[in-house]
Structure formats: C-alpha cells, structure tokens
Automatic annotation (TrEMBL):
Region (Disordered): 104-125
Lineage: Bacteria, Bacillati, Actinomycetota, Actinomycetes, Mycobacteriales
Pfam (any one): YbaB_DNA_bd
UniProt biased composition (Basic and acidic residues): 105-115
GO MF annotations, alphabetized: DNA binding
Superkingdom of this protein's organism: Bacteria
Entry-linked InterPro entries: YbaB-like_sf, YbaB/EbfC
Name of the protein: YbaB/EbfC family nucleoid-associated protein
Gene3D superfamilies, per database record: Nucleoid-associated protein YbaB-like domain
Length: 142
C-alpha cells in the first residue's frame, strides 16, 4: 500500500512549506491549484473549439459522390451527382463507403493534430498517469 501511495503522489508537484507555517503553506498550495484549474479549463475550451471547427469535405475519385464529416467523423452531408446515379447500386455503395472512410480518416488526423499541443504537454501526461494510478486503470496508450 505504501508503494502505491508513493507512486500516486510522485506526479504531484511539491511546494516547499513557507516559513509562515502550515496555514500559509496550504494557502499557497490552494492558490496554485486554482491557477492550474483555470489553465486547464482554458486549454479544454480551446481544444473543444478547435475540434468543433473541424470539417472535412471529400469527393470520390471519379466525382460520383461527395461527403462532409465533422471533427468526430460523423457524416454531416452526402452529395450524390448524376454520375453517381449511373454507376449502379453495388458500385455506388462501394464508392460511398470508401469516400466516407477517407473523410473520416482525414477528420481523425486533423483532430489528432489539433489535440497534439494538449496531449503532449508534460503536465497533461503526468496528470493522466496520476489519475490512472489513482483509479487503478492503466493508461490507454501503454
């Protein structure tokens, strides 16, 4: 148990206790935690805004169909051209699926790119590992 507890708190930054005593130390620690919470809320809002702005439009190689997906890969629009109506059901289904998958892949890449500054932040990585240690779950990327 002591080893687990030690691992949990290694991720936390330690503030040196000021000479004013325990109350001053706790006041300083609380102030720092408030500042960190504000910083994380701002980063979270920025990331949500960036992800919400992602929109990918893709057209099939021969122009039969066009699709639009959002930052989560959800299809938000499908445009079928007259050319698409002439290719037949089986071919149209295949082209539609391939085009949607390409658009979703591009949306995923854009979302990863938008999140990279936040997910590669050393403080975020440390906090994620501490949270997973605390909850007893291994991080998803290990």
């Amino acid at each position: 148990m002591a080893h687990t507890r030690r691992r949990r708190y290694q991720a936390c930054r330690v503030i040196q206790a000021p000479t004013g005593g325990l109350v001053d130390y706790l006041d300083d620690w609380n102030a720092e935690q408030r500042e960190l919470a504000i910083k994380w809320r701002r980063k979270n809002a920025d990331l949500r805004t960036a992800l919400a702005a992602i929109e990918v439009r893709t057209t099939s190689p021969n122009g039969e169909i066009g699709v639009t997906v959002d930052g989560q890969g959800n299809v938000t629009n499908v445009r079928l051209t007259p050319q698409g109506l002439r290719v037949g059901d089986a071919r149209l289904s295949q082209v539609m699926l391939e085009t949607i998958q390409r658009a979703q892949g591009e949306a995923r890449r854009k979302a990863d790119e938008a999140a990279r500054p936040y997910t590669s932040d050393p403080d975020a990585v440390t906090a994620k590992k501490a949270l997973h240690d605390l909850l007893g779950n291994p991080p998803a990327d290990e």
